[in-house]
Amino acid sequence: MARIIIDTDPGVDDAIAILLALACPALEVAGLTVVGGNVPQARGVRNALALLEYAGQGDVPVLRGSSRPLPGQGNGKFPYAHHFHGWSGLSRRLPKPRNRPAAGGAVDFLAAQLDAAPGQVHIAALGPLTNLARLERQRPGALSQAASIVVMGGAVDAPGNSTPYAEFNFYSDPAAAQEVLTCGVPLTLVDLAACRQVAIGREAAANLRAPGNRLGQLAAQLAQNWFRREARRERFEFYDPLALAAAIAPEVLTTRRAAVSVATAAGPEWAASRVTAPDGPVAVVERVDAARFFALLREILGWEGV
Ligand code: BDR
Ligand code: CA
Questions:
Q1: Which domain holds residue 182?
Q2: pTM of the entire structure?
Q3: Is residue 306 situated within a structural domain?
Q4: Over the stretch 269-281, which tens digit does the pLDDT of each residue have?
Q5: Which residues, 6+ apart, have CB-to-CB distance to 286 below 8 Å?
Q6: Ligand 1 shell residues, CB under 6 Å
Q7: 138 domain-assigned
Q8: Alpha carbon nearest to ligand 1 atom 10, residue
Q9: CA of 161, closest atom in ligand 1
């Protein structure tokens, strides 16, 4: 069974990705390390705990991570995405969690897990890359001990969603994204252009069912309720679930190696991600097997109607 740490800022699509991981029989979730992003870090921690308790997996540790981006950027705060994820970050109320986050922080947890089992722990990074960048600053080379790293972020030569150039996770902490992408460690970058290929429409979401699959039912409700709240939107894109799916089943993507850089200089292209050389540590997506992705949602979450 593969062990995975999910670094996350839950978030509606993070939550669906987490449920996908928790429901996947081939994965053992070693921990959720939380970073501020879609919502403040403390709210993200609460959401992570609530999801685990709903899933009956309250023994999975939740670790507090960064509540601010790396210093020296913008106003020093995460921009948050309440306009997309709602005030709470989730589109369904869950009971107040009984558990507390584990002692110690996200960075120490990541370091300890990677040290204890070099080459055996996978990482899926679904939020701003602040925790991973801080890990690499404190323990250079730590990330090279991961079995694999999948990052959801960036808009490689594609329009952004925070600005015309920048994707939200990279926009939230471009310096962290730049440090992680250029530290030399191989990683797969699931960018916006890839995620835009796996979306669900309003009507299809309304028809989603997951008979007998509790985690699949919650994941479906999260998407359905999001459409109820967002009367003017017609597509829900599976950003973080695609990154998680790539960790479970790498064949869902076809990639090519490249060097990718994230713009950290002030200006309109701040946080833009660009291929800077044809060879490098980053596997950028060339093709998404959308049919395989939706088959995974059916297999693991028991979804019918997609
Ligand atoms: C990314 O930003 C967040 O809002 C989503 O959770 C996803 O990780 C998409 O740009
Ligand atoms: Ca996210």
A1: 2-301
A2: 0.98
A3: no
A4: 999 999 999 999 9
A5: 253, 254, 255, 256
A6: 11, 13-14, 38, 81, 84, 126-127, 152, 161, 167-169, 239-240
A7: yes
A8: 168
A9: 10
Is the separation of the CB atoms in 124 and 27 below 8 Å?
no
CA of 161 to the centre of ligand 1 (A): 9
CATH number at residue 155: 3.90.245.10
Nearest ligand (C-alpha, residue 36): 2
Distance of CA 245 to the CA centre of its chain: 11
User: How many domains are there within the chain?
Assistant: 1
Residue 117 lies in a domain: yes
What is the per-residue pLDDT across 138-176, written as a single tens digit (0 to 9) for each? 999 999 999 999 999 999 989 999 999 999 999 999 999
Query: Is 153 inside any structural domain?
Result: yes
Q: 306 CA to middle of ligand 1, Å?
A: 22
